[in-house]
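Task: sequence design from structure.
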């Protein structure tokens, strides 16, 4: 084998390992959220004499949260299209909008948590509230990590890193992660909020 052939083979193995590792991570996150959903479903009736989530949920407010997250997914998709065309300016523009809408989602979720806590409905009040805060908070933490990841990649692009295949792969992984969080939120919105007000 020539040196170039060995390098290509090594690079292909590294790519395969990256892809395998990323999908393993997504699968472990599926198990994590599956466990949290199951716990919430079991515990949602454990109110310890307090009000049910039906009386605490403001559905229009949560719809606003949802719109922020869905729009962030759209803007990230537009950023990826700009990336594939190697248009750095439009890509950064759409990524900035993604960060803004993502931060909007996180800030609304934090505000919701603070309001629940200040009105005496924190995670310590009942099994239902503990399961609620854990499930919704874990999703919010994932969104925050995704935003941090996005900011790091944006800084790298602004610092002059080449928008090559390697960088494209990093953005693709982030995009898959971001889509995964949207799918999880749709389940959270349906199971926790929408079914909670019925």
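Answer:
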């Amino acid at each position: 084998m020539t040196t170039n052939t060995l390098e290509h083979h090594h690079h292909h193995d590294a790519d395969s390992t990256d892809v395998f590792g990323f999908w393993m991570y997504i699968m472990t996150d599926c198990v994590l959220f599956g466990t949290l959903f199951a716990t919430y479903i079991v515990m949602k009736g454990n109110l310890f004499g307090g009000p049910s989530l039906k009386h605490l949920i403001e559905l229009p407010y949560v719809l606003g949260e949802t719109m922020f997250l869905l729009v962030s997914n759209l803007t990230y998709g537009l950023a990826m299209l700009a990336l594939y065309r190697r248009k750095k300016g439009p890509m950064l523009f759409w990524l900035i909008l993604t960060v803004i809408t993502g931060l909007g989602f996180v800030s609304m979720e934090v505000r919701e948590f603070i309001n629940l806590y200040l009105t005496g409905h924190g995670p310590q009040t009942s099994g239902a509230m503990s399961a609620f805060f854990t499930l919704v908070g874990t999703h919010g933490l994932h969104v925050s990590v995704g935003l941090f990841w996005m900011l790091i990649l944006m800084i790298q692009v602004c610092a002059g890193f080449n928008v090559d295949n390697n960088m494209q792969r990093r953005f693709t992984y982030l995009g898959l992660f971001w889509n995964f969080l949207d799918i999880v939120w749709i389940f959270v919105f349906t199971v926790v909020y929408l079914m909670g007000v019925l």
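The first helix runs from residue 3 to 43.
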